[in-house]
Amino acid sequence: MRRRPLSAMGRPTAALFDMDRTLVRVNTGRLYAWWRFEQKQAGLRDLARFGRWLAEYSLGVIDPSEITTRALATLEGIEETAFRTELHRWYEERVRRHVSAEARAEVERQRAAGRVLAILTASTPYAAGPLAAELGIEHVICTQLEVVDGRFTGRCAELCYGDGKVRMAEEWAHRHGVDLDRSTFYTDSVSDLPMLKRVGNQRVVNPDPRLRWAARRRGWPVARWR
Q1: Phi, psi for 193 (deg, rounded to 5)
Q2: What residues does each domain of the chain span?
Q3: What is the pLDDT of residues 4-53, one digit of tens each?
Q4: Which of 18, 25, 127, 181 could form a disulfide with 187 if both were Cys (CB 3.0 to 4.6 A apart)?
């Protein structure tokens, strides 16, 4: 059995990977919006609304929790089991082809080094789960949706974003005895700056302009994965 590398405190270290534009080359939310349109589950108005949300988010004029609230409202009353099945099909038909070859190689490199592997994303387990299964990543730390009697309420139980992502990662690390101070985090987004500061090893991948600037200022390595 491969021995895990231990920190100076005798605890295992982890490799934590963001999902969109890191493990996957594209924004999976956009892929899902188009997929729903093609499945005739959404109309042009829904596509336009989603595009507006993305633009507002990119410009920093809308709070991410507000986008989450709006998006989750559309799931109210939907069966969790049916949604999980739907997103497995969506992953196979739309997402799988966009998984980065460099990401696959890095996951295997970190696995060979004995790191604890986890996806750390603002996405949901229904979207991130199939990716984790394909890459053989055991842990998924992500946004949790509220479910009552097997159906979504349309509300968020826990948002894995910004400082919330740090808190959820710390809780996960505590449960599994992982030393975050000597762990590595891979991401593309400036919204993950708090998490990048929390770990000992920063890996900036396909960065947005603001994260690219922050990485240059701090001397963090920047990679381009395709």
Answers
A1: -55, -40
A2: 14-223
A3: 565 555 899 999 999 999 999 999 988 988 888 888 777 777 767 777 77
A4: 18
Question: With b meaning 16 or more CB within 10 Å and e meaning fewer, what string describes 129-140?
Answer: bbbbeebebebb
- Strands in 37-187 per DSSP E: 116-120, 139-141, 144-148, 151-158, 184-187
> What SS3 state is found at 184?
strand
Q: Is 63 a catalytic residue?
A: no
Fold of the domain spanning 14-223: Rossmann fold (3.40.50)
If DSSP states are collapsed to H, E and C, what string results for 71-104? HHHCCCCCEHHHHHHHHHHHHHHHHHHHECHHHH
For residues 180, 182, 185, 191, the Cα torsion angle rounded to the nearest 10 degrees is 60
CB atoms within 10 A of CB 213: 12
Nearest to 99 by CA among 128, 63, 75: 128
By the 8 A CB rule, do 180 and 162 touch? no
Task: State the Cα–Cα distance between residues 160 and 141, nearest whole angstrom.
Answer: 8
Distances (CA, A) of 90 to 134, 208, 211, 220: 14, 26, 30, 35
- Catalytic status, residue 18: yes
Tokens 């987004």, residue located: 189
Q: What is the pTM of this model?
A: 0.92
> Among residues 224, 12, 210, which one has the least CA distance to residue 114?
12
